[in-house]
Amino acid sequence: MPSQEIQWFPGHMAKTRRMIKENLRFVDAVIEILDARIPLSSRNPELKDLIAQKPALVLLNKSSLADPGQTVLWQSDYTAENTLCIPTDCLTGRGLNQIAPALRKLCAEVLAKNDRRGVNRPLRAMVLGIPNVGKSTLINRLSRTKKAKVEDRPGVTRERQWVSTSLGIDLLDMPGMLWPKFDERLVGENLAITGAIRDSLLDREEIAIALIDRLRRYYPGLLCERYSLGRIEDYSGHTNFSLLEVIGKKRGFLVPGGEVDTPRAAGMLLDELREGKIGRITLDYKEAKNA
């Protein structure tokens, strides 16, 4: 179960932190990519101190999978002095045309200074984010190449690499950075549910149960519709595990003897969440201020 007891390769994370510190002086801005479904849980709590006063562009990526109303709320929260926030989707291309103008706005002073000095060079931006958040896909879309390796599993980018684009921006791709341990169980669960942590490290049943808990609380209509449950009130006496059994039975995931194959049901549930088949869902659910 993802919790504060689990250590996530602390040596590798320390190396990544050092790389960030050492290379910040070479860039004009930082592009921080978050998962729009978990905009709080996917934000590394160490990053703010690491990047110091550098202008920052926050991308809420995978926004086509997230609750659009929630994305608006988080975008507002993450827009501040010296920081802009844009919903994006690297697969569909949504929002990518806003990245270059936003960076030029954030780096207006740098551009003006370069112009006064007669310096003609691209803006330089460091690209940061947790594993499997879409960094490599973003870089490949912006550069229109396949220089950054892309796989649907966390932890593929191991070393830094510079990539040029036709937008007047050079991108410094850094390894995905997960913090060594999580102070809140909720953060670890959300990272696991969305696939930022390798499934092989975790108990998928327990992660699926955590997902059911979120869906019952925030998206009961989507849960019931996808798995033909009728009304969520009909399951008020069910635990999250017993509801997983109901879902598995409805899908026909049975083993000899008629018991439900709960590991298979759990895997199906997580896969369908990640593929957007349940609906547009934000697990870091934020109540509207006027609610």
Walkthrough of the structure:
There is one protein chain. With 291 residues, the protein is an alpha/beta fold. It has two domains: 164 residues, Rossmann fold (3-Layer(aba) Sandwich); 72 residues, Conserved Hypothetical Protein Ylqf, Chain: A, domain 2, CATH 1.10.1580. Strands 3-2-1-4-6-5 form a six-stranded mixed β-sheet, with helices on both faces. Helix 8 crosses helix 10 and helix 8 crosses helix 11. The radius of gyration is 21 Å and the shape is elongated. The N terminus is likely disordered.
Q: Characterize the biggest β-sheet.
A: 6 strands, mixed
If classified by CATH, what would the architecture of the largest domain be? 3-Layer(aba) Sandwich
The class by helix and strand makeup works out as alpha/beta
- CATH class of the largest domain, please? Alpha Beta
Record the strand order, biggest sheet.
3-2-1-4-6-5
Shape: elongated
Task: Summarize model confidence as the mean pLDDT.
Answer: 88
Count of DSSP-assigned helices: 11
Low-confidence stretches: 1-10, 150-157
Strand content: 5-15%
Distance between the termini: 33 Å
Whole-angstrom Rg = 21 Å
CATH superfamily of the largest domain: P-loop containing nucleotide triphosphate hydrolases
Sequence of secondary-structure elements: HEHEHEHHEHEEHHHHH
The number of distinct structural domains comes to: 2
Assign the CATH topology of the largest domain: Rossmann fold
How helix-rich are the residues, as a percent range?
25-40%
Number of strands: 6
